[in-house]
Amino acid sequence: MLKFVGKRLLAGIALVAALSVLTFFLLQTGSSDTARRIAGQSATEEAVAQVEARLGLDQPVMQQFLNWAGGALRGDFGVSWFNGQPVTDAVLSRISVTVSLAVGSVVLTALIGIVLGALAATRRGWLDRTVQFLGVLGQAIPGFLMALFLVIVFAIKLDWFPATGYTKPGDSVNEWLLSITLPVVALTIGSIGGVAQQVRGSMIDVLNRDFVRTLRSRGLPVRRIVFRHVLRNAAGPALSVLGLQFVILLGGAVIVEQLFSIPGLGPLALTSTSLGDIPIVMGIVIMTAIVVTIVNTLVDIAQAWLNPKVRLS
Amino acid sequence: MSRILKALAVGSAAALALTACSGSGDATGDATDTSSSSSTGGRADQLTIGAVVDIATWKAADAEWGNTATYHMAVYDTLLRTAADGTVEPGLAEEWSYNDDMTELTLELRDGVTFSDGTDLTAEVAAENVLRFRDGASSNTSNLSAVTDATAVDEDTLVLTLSQPDPALTTYLSQNSGLVAAASTFDAADAQTNPVGSGPYVLDADASTIGSSYTFTARDDYWDPEIQHYDTIVINYYADASALVNALRDNQVDIANTNSTTQIPDAEAAGYTINSLPINWKGLILADRAGSVNEALGDVKVRQAINYAIDREGLLQALESGYGEPTTQIFGTGTEAYLEELEDAYPYDPEKAKALLAEAGYPDGITVVMPQTAFVPASESELIAGVLAESGITVEYEQAGESFISDLLGGKWGMFAFGLNQEPMAWMTYQLALAPGSAWNVFHQPDETIESLAATMRLGGDDADAAAKEMNQYVVEQAMFAPFYRVLGVIVTNDATTVTMKDGQAVSNLWDIVPA
Questions:
Q1: Residues forming a β-bridge with B482
Q2: Closest by alpha carbon to B502, among B494, B487, B513, B493?
Q3: 8 Å CB contact of B32 and A174
Q4: Cβ B452 vs Cβ B156: under 8 Å
Q5: How confident is the model over A165-204, as pLDDT tens digits?
Q6: CA–CA separation, B242 vs A132, rounded Å?
Q7: Same domain, A58 and A141
Q8: Which residues contact A145 (CB under 8 A, 6 or more apart)?
Q9: Is A169 an interface residue toward B (CB < 8 Å)?
Q10: Cα-flanking dihedrals φ and ψ of residue A59, to 5°?
Q11: Which 3-state string (H, E, C) describes A177-241?
């Protein structure tokens, strides 16, 4: 198992390294006026040149990358070019917010998706058709529309939740729950369908296998067969989908955070990218890649635990 | 049922609690309703402000103003203050006076003022602030371009030496040019994120998230407690217009600037009071008055034709739902240059526009290239082009890139749609858009008539007022700009809050926001 985890971690490190190279050089193509923006609209060419020299923008791109990579390897991701905030502070203070939304959404997706998928696979008939229809409908509705709908109904009309903003759990767990409920639900609705479909398909597949027929013929209760044997065998593909959903939800959180005015990575990513604040963008990409790598590794470990054949591969 | 009780009823609470992975004392935007109830001692507990612009830097030497003035007014004092009507009043300086030829401004600073780091205000610190701002990265550094030196004569006396008189200097010193930060911030690595001022509030960094929400607490030892109307001030920045509208609908803020007049109906429906004042003019800047990029624009008849081609009422209805004031002058209504007869100097008349183009030698019309930017929606650009096309003026849009501002100010386009501040003083409008060195005299074109009038305005008095009016008349006759209308700055307030709008500024003075 240790060798398996080690391999996955090495692959993750290679992924982060490749991503950092790709992102850095891609960012160079769209940030031609950064020094001017920092120096101010009315700054002289001399002042702009001073900013370029201070930030190292007057050096060749490869040298700029090596400077950044050298710092990053020492854990120094630099400071924002625009507001001077250390990148580590800016990203770490926000990534926890975004990850909490994504994790909350994955947990909710897993709970609802597995229940609906299992019901559809075991009951079939109208329930199966309804679950499939609602799954497609959920995926078809754009996340921002769902977010606006939830705000209008549950925040403005019913006044159950705040329309915008975020309370940290350290201040009040209840207020924190209220502040993230609508964003989490907005993120979740679109992803339930995919998980439910996956669980349904896998369970139908397992239910038709010989060992399940044997268990049935020995008179074991259906509930025990489903929970002890079918779900465990069908869990592998569902876990893969949930891992993938987590990554998708991290991306989806960008828009939802903007709409709910939540101080996660989304607004920071949008602002930094539009300004050309390369240190912050690089920090976001690297930290997000690390989180995604960790989640994928955990999913792989869970898969290996569920199915020893995975470890051998 | 309170939201706390409702929280306990949230079905997904248990599942979501598993995800409480953000407890590291980090971000917070206040998600609760506002609370402006009065506390003991005459102050209200909290003021929650909705902002549409985030603060880019707290460093006083690089500070911007406009929409970010509220942030600065919370933590910093300025050398002077301006009242809502534009009158200059004492700030950190109790008294000020010019010498005879108005090239030396002496400011007497008040005693007993301390910064939030415990250090004292001195004339030396104030002088250093002035010089650092003049040489800093703010877009308003030119406000202090006449200041050749700032020196501390003694502990409390600051003298600014000027290369030539500047009638707007005292007003500038009540804005970002007059912000005073503690000496400890001058070379501090965290100066951009950690403000140390002598202002009425201090930033609570632990309760704030850069780029999202800022919490300020009132200082107990502030020298002017009369302007501290709240114990705590929270400024929530709404990057998304929909988020601001939703925050208003849910009564999450006491006061907010709106992104545009289209949000007025939503704010009214949510029970907010609408406070408005013209703050900008929007229209075309006919920058290439020498005809170096587009020869036709060098002819005054062509520029006048463009002015006659504009259906100002129609554009106001279409673009601002009627909120605003059609005008053909760039000087504000409160300035000494304002002339009522110039409000409609170029009535919409496509036939007259075509005739003027023909007189100028363009019987088949002209073609101009304008930039298409994210600042102006494509639909708006098309509308403007459509209006001009009716008079034979064809607009070809060129997609502006990343370096839009540099290109614009570098003279890439002869004319473009933009909006400029309606300054509270005629002199400030001259400095902003007409002086040869000003950023928005894009081609830095000198004009003898304007410079002659500016020389009179520089010295103040009745002659200066007359010269300002004459300058306005001349600018309109020369059709240097083609304003559409004045845009309303809108501040909405709830029942617990009142505000006095400030002439020429997007936001009010912080101390003019008071509990109702």
A1: B284
A2: B513
A3: no
A4: no
A5: 998 888 889 999 999 999 999 988 888 888 888 888 888 8
A6: 32
A7: no
A8: none
A9: yes
A10: -90, 160
A11: HHHHHHHHHHHHHHHHHHHHHHHHHHHHHHHCCHHHHHHHHCCCCHHHHHHHHHHHHHHHHHHHH
pLDDT value of residue A32: 63
Q: CB contact, 8 Å: A183 with chain B?
A: no
CB contact under 8 A, A104 and B3: no
Superfamily for B59-196? Dipeptide-binding Protein; Domain 1 (3.90.76.10)
Give yes or no: residues A97 and A31 share one domain.
Answer: no
| H helices present in A124-172, as ranges | 125-140, 143-150
Helix H or strand E segment including B180? strand B179-180
Token pair, residue B43, equals 């102050």
Q: B3-12+279-488, which class in CATH?
A: alpha beta
- Residue B72: how many CA atoms within 13 Å on its side-chain side? 31
**Together in a domain, A7 and A154:** no
How far away is chain B from the Cα of A293, in angstroms, using its nearest Cα? 18
* CATH value at residue A242: 1.10.3720.10
Q: What is the mean pLDDT of residues B403-428?
A: 88
Dig out the tokens for A260 from the structure.
């709910």
Q: Which residue of A has its CA nearest to B134?
A: A43
Burial A104-127 (b: 16+ CB within 10 A, else e): bbbbbbbbbbbebbbbbbbeeeee
Residue-wise pLDDT tens digits, A242-251: 888 888 888 7
Cα–Cα distance between B175 and B424 in angstroms, integer? 12
Question: Helix, strand, or coil here: B276?
Answer: strand
Choose the mutation target among B26, B208, B409 for the interface with A, i.e. most A CBs under 10 Å.
B26
